[in-house]
TrEMBL record:
It is found in: Cytoplasm. It catalyses: epoxyqueuosine(34) in tRNA + AH2 = queuosine(34) in tRNA + A + H2O. The active site is at 133 (proton donor). It holds the Pfam family QueG_DUF1730. This is Epoxyqueuosine reductase. Transmembrane segments: none annotated. TRNA binds at residue 222.
Amino acid sequence: MSKEKYTYLIKQKASELGFMYCGISKADFLEEEAPRLERWLNQHMHGQMHYMENHFDKRLDPRLLVEGAKSVVSLLLNYYPSQEDQQPEEDTYKISKYAYGTDYHFVIKDKLKTLLSYINEEIGEVGGRCFVDSAPVLDKAWAKKSGLGWVGKNSNLITPQVGSFYFIAELIIDLELEYDGPIKDYCGSCTRCLDACPTNAIVEPYVVDGSKCISYFTIELKDQLPQEMNGKFGNWVFGCDICQDVCPWNRFSKPHSEPAFAPHPQLKELKASDWQELTHEVFSQLFKKSAVKRTGYNGLVRNIRFVHGNPEEE
């Protein structure tokens, strides 16, 4: 079989598994990203996310993660919820849309394993690894390289026709394939994401200071929340979608069709007062398999109190 045939089979199977798009790039050193990542780390824009400092070389060269790697297969999985599944705007606290349903790590890992098994069955013995946001892989850089979108001013990957509400995952394999090329940046003169960010985390177009982002504060930061951020979180208590919600490209977002991403039925019904009285039992029931477990019950309660205006109770 030829490279073209292998590529066709992989992309067809990815589509069958529910991935929105599949793009492929050559497994090589990310030359353009190296100085950018180094500068970002030197300016401490990763805050307390110390894991970002680890495996610098591996982040830039997939051949150090998978021996003999030839191709990076980038995949997008839609998580945009339907209108009826979204939380109301008023009298509640909000969690990021990506965390509504089952933790994406489990959902995507299963799909990637199925894809890798299929490659081994149909093409022959292929060495490779699956990656879902939990290893030193610069997923947006690879997705951009393979033509799945451009990295916008809010540092999210944006795709024409669909926007940016999707997960990015990779298969790094030792099989040579047909490679896709990057597409143009269509942000133009738009600055809506910069203008809308309440904590000024987007310090300049295409540069996000992770240590100022609401998602960082509500998920990654384990200390007390800084007083200077008081009143700036709106009603966000886990993650934040503001820079995506205001992006004009997301008017093209269409609801996903992944049953695992459906929210717990009770989520939409929670009023602000219910969140303020959240018990450990209700937390465990609501977020049993959700990414919200990452911040833990105590972390979520801390965030709710901070947004409610009682940070001293933390």
